[in-house]
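Saturday, quiet lab. Running sequence design on the structure tokens for the scaffold JK sent over.
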């Protein structure tokens, strides 16, 4: 009887390009293989023998290749305002991506394709200011201008054999043109040492694309506003105890978060956020 064991774990990385100019191509291959086998021969008689063998084998290989061109390098700035009571952060960016991977479900098969080019430009802004010792305001927002080019996709709802559709010029998925948050925080301290923190926030989002085919149902989520409320209380009479109450999605907004198309029958599965949610939590540090 002969038995054996084989195992391989191999990794290969390669990078080519001009990093100083933002051009870089990376290649990574991860390989892992495992095998276990056994062979045996049984003599039934002088002229008759039975040979048998069993082998278990598994092999996994992952290859990732990415080509990127970032131009120019993002520019950001940070400033402290109003004698330290305010903070302002601004980041500007302009990216050009090559071979950006796009994944979609076609019938029952997940297909991954590369966009020839994707342009992403915009800015992020964050502002904080203490109106009083107890009251603080926060404001953050993002602006995105996106576009894909040289991208041809099969419409999962079209008849088999229908030519791929050129969706160049479309905006990127899950990249609203504008989104932002406005929040107020109030911190109150009591004479016995207890602490109360109140927070109210509004999240605003522009239209969000989920599908590259504009004429499909649920290709977009319209702009929406969601309000959340939080209250945290730390009583002084129980060391380490914290109680948190919240109401999320106060307006009970029904917002789409994703779409899974099924080509057969033209069906789509929509994924939505939770409706209005109440909660009460308690924790204690020992």
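Result came back. Writing it out in full:
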């Amino acid at each position: 009887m002969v038995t054996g064991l084989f195992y391989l774990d191999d990794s290969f990385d390669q990078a080519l390009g001009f990093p100083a100019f933002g051009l870089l191509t990376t290649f990574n291959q991860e390989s892992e293989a495992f095998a276990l086998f056994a062979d045996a021969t049984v003599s039934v008689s002088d002229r008759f023998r039975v040979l048998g063998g069993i082998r278990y084998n598994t092999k996994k290989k992952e290859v990732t290749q990415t080509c990127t061109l970032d131009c120019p390098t993002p520019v950001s700035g940070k400033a402290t305002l109003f004698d330290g009571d305010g903070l302002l952060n601004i980041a500007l960016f302009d990216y050009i991506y090559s071979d950006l991977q796009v994944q979609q479900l076609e019938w029952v098969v997940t297909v991954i394709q590369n966009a020839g080019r994707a342009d992403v430009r915009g800015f992020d802004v964050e502002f904080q200011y203490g109106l009083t010792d107890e009251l603080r305001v926060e404001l953050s927002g993002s602006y995105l201008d996106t576009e894909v080019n040289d991208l041809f996709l099969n419409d999962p709802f079209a008849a088999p054999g229908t030519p791929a559709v050129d969706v160049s010029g479309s905006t990127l998925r899950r990249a609203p043109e504008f989104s932002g948050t406005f929040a107020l925080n109030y911190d109150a301290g009591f004479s016995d040492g207890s602490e109360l923190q109140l927070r109210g926030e509004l999240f605003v989002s522009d239209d969000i694309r989920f599908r590259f085919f504009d004429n499909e149902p649920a290709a977009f989520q319209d702009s929406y506003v969601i309000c959340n409320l939080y209250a945290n209380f730390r009583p002084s009479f129980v060391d380490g105890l914290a109680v948190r109450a919240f109401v999320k999605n106060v307006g009970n907004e029904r917002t789409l978060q994703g779409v899974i198309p099924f080509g057969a029958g033209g069906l789509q599965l929509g994924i939505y956020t939770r409706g209005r949610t109440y909660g009460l939590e308690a924790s204690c540090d020992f």
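Notes for JK: The chain is about 0% helix and 70% strand. The radius of gyration is 29 Å. Ask whether to fix the surface positions before the next round.
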